[in-house]
Every structure is written in structure tokens, then in C-alpha cells.
Specification:
With 199 residues, the chain is an alpha+beta fold. It has 8 helices and 4 strands, in the order αββαααββαααα. It folds into 2 domains: 1-16 and 25-31 and 86-157, no CATH class; 35-81, no CATH class. Strands 1-2-3-4 form a 4-stranded antiparallel beta sheet.
């Protein structure tokens, strides 16, 4: 999660394209698997219109498609799956958030990872780029790229043992003689089957 956030910010810095954009109290993050190369204002407008149930106005593939056709639906899917929204505290988000050291601003994201764990790489990237100490909850502070890089170094330097099954101890699991069930010598196994047939 931290490595992915670092990759998001590094891609933003290296290219002349925008992948993260803040408008008011909402940050938009272009997904790496989207059909779009950069985050434009027209794409954000179309995304907001599509999320509100309205028709997009700027996406050419959507405008060229026939009404109620398969191409129109695929174009709408392209827009809806193009980005994630990270909402700042007080922006009207109704989702629950988890206040933690990695989410000091109590941000909320629309991605699947945030819904599952309450933390995601998008929140870490937005915190690193846009959140100041004044935006954080009392007792928490923002962080920068250097802090995240030291966390990654700590994770990489810690080596863990390979996941191996526990070593078996010889004779520890032998069943005692007193717990064994011994059949009566006078009982025949066919008599037991007859009892079951009567049921």
C-alpha cells in the first residue's frame, strides 16, 4: 500500500501529466487501469455527471455512440471506472473512516481497498501531497515522501522466517491404551447392521 502510494506520487512528479487533482475538498485520482492517459477537467466533469446519473458531455466515444447501445454503455463504464475520489473531512462524505497514523486527516476514499480495510494507497498519496498538519485531527500530524521511504526501508530490512509447518514431536500424539474402544467378543458386526436397518 505504501509502495503503491509512492509510485502514484512519483508518476505525478516525473510526467507532465496529471494523475492527482484537488478541487475543493475532493481529490480525484486517475486509476492506472483506466482508458484515459491524464486527468483533465472535462473528464472530472463527465465523471461527476455520470455519478449523478446524468449523461456525460465531453467524452467523444460516448457522444458518437448510438443511444441505448452497447457502445454507449461501454463508454459510460470507461468514465465511471476512470478514477477514485478521496474526500476530505467535512466534505459531506457519509462513509465511515478510520483515524490512524497513515490517515491523520480522516480521509475517505471510494476504492474497494478502503471499503475493506479502511486504508488505501490513494489516501496515503493524498495525505503526502495535499494534507498539512493543520488539516489533521488533533494529536496527529501529516507526513512526507521521506517518512514513507523510511517506512518502506524498515519493512524491507525486516526478514521473516519462511512459513513452515510446526515441527512434529515424536510420540506426543500417541493415543493411550485406555482410550481405545475394544469390541465385545460376543457381539457380531452383522447384528449392528440389523439394528440400523430397522430405523
Amino acid at each position: 500500500m505504501i509502495r503503491k502510494a509512492l509510485r502514484l506520487v512519483e508518476a505525478e512528479a516525473q510526467k507532465n501529466t496529471r494523475h492527482i487533482r484537488r478541487i475543493g475538498s475532493i481529490c480525484y485520482i486517475l486509476r492506472s487501469k483506466s482508458k484515459f492517459d491524464q486527468l483533465t477537467s472535462n473528464l472530472i466533469k463527465d465523471y461527476k455527471r455520470a455519478m449523478a446519473g446524468e449523461a456525460p458531455r465531453h467524452y467523444e466515444r460516448y457522444k458518437e455512440a448510438e443511444a441505448c447501445s452497447k457502445d454507449e454503455i461501454h463508454a459510460l463504464i470507461d468514465i465511471c471506472q476512470s478514477m477514485h475520489m478521496v474526500m476530505l473531512r467535512g466534505s459531506g462524505s457519509t462513509n465511515a473512516y478510520v483515524s490512524s497514523r497513515m490517515n491523520p486527516g480522516e480521509l475517505v476514499c471510494t476504492c474497494k481497498g478502503f471499503r475493506m480495510t479502511g486504508e488505501c494507497s490513494h489516501i496515503i498519496a493524498v495525505t503526502m501531497e495535499y494534507i498539512e498538519d493543520a488539516d489533521c485531527v488533533e494529536g496527529r500530524s501529516s507526513y512526507d515522501k521521506a517518512y514513507l521511504e523510511t517506512l518502506v526501508e524498515k519493512l524491507e530490512s525486516t526478514t521473516r522466517a519462511a512459513h513452515r509447518p510446526r515441527a512434529t514431536v515424536g510420540g506426543a500424539r500417541i493415543q493411550p491404551d485406555t482410550d481405545t474402544v475394544r469390541g465385545n467378543a460376543g457381539e457380531d458386526s452383522s447384528d449392528l447392521d440389523d439394528d440400523l436397518d430397522e430405523l
